[in-house]
Specification:
Distance between the termini: 26 Å
Order of helices and strands: HHHEHEEEHEHHHEE
Helix content: 25-40%
Number of strands: 7
CATH class: Alpha Beta
Structural class: alpha/beta
């Protein structure tokens, strides 16, 4: 997937600590893996997809959640709002922002209904929906709230797998009981295994965002969108 960044100004933010004690990333760059790690990550990808992320580093592999964080961080700028933040890893890595979730994960800053965010208009420079938009039944309402909470020309970062990848990944982790999200709460009507890229683009456009970057990562199985508030 080609990417366009010509209209997205000021990519990157101040360097922050990586997960698991890794070195800070260079401004505007995805954190580089240690020598040999990329090949091991590729060869043992099924293990990374099936094993709890907390256990993957013990095997000398990169957790998939860290892949998401590392690919998103270069696009984070200023005050960050992470919606559906889980354990709030992106905010912790960036070092400036607020993580909100409807479920009380350890590390959440604000527990709330994300359809009604408790922030004033224009409070944030960057917002993120990392691996969660498909799990939000009222995603149009949440995107509208994110749009409101962002400053003019603020940016939104979204990662999303497609429904086919999502179906197999969720089925494997469900059988092995290694999906904390799926094990801790019940799936709701309106949730999907994943969303096609065209669907994500349409959702963002309908909410008043223009996609400036759209690329794939993790061997093409995940997608990164960086959009700008344009109205």
């Amino acid at each position: 997937m080609s990417s366009s960044t010509s209209n997205l100004r000021g990519l990157g933010s101040q360097a922050g600590p990586g997960l698991n004690g890794s070195q800070p990333r260079r401004r505007g760059a995805v954190r580089q893996k240690p020598p040999g790690r990329e090949l091991r990550d590729l060869l043992f990808f099924p293990v990374r997809a099936a094993v709890l992320d907390d256990h993957v580093p013990w095997l000398g592999l990169t957790p998939l959640r860290q892949e998401r964080i590392d690919n998103c961080l270069p696009y984070v700028n200023g005050r960050l709002l992470d919606v559906g933040c889980g354990e709030n890893l992106l905010v912790r890595a960036h070092g400036m922002g607020t993580g909100v979730d409807i479920f009380p994960w350890p590390g959440v800053d604000v527990l709330c209904d994300t359809r009604r965010l408790p922030f004033e208009d224009g409070s944030f420079d960057t917002a993120a929906l990392i691996a969660c938009l498909n799990h939000i039944p009222d995603r149009e309402q949440v995107l509208a709230e994110v749009h409101r909470a962002l400053a003019p020309r603020g940016r939104l970062i979204v990662t999303m797998i497609d429904p086919v990848v999502g179906y197999f990944a969720h089925r494997v982790t469900h059988v092995l009981n290694t999906d904390p999200d799926g094990c801790e709460r019940e799936r709701k009507d309106g949730e999907h295994w994943g969303l096609w890229g065209s669907h994500v683009r349409q959702l963002l456009a309908d909410a008043g965002f223009t996609v400036r970057v759209h690329r794939r990562f993790v061997y093409g199985m995940n997608q990164l969108f960086v959009a700008e508030r344009t109205d």
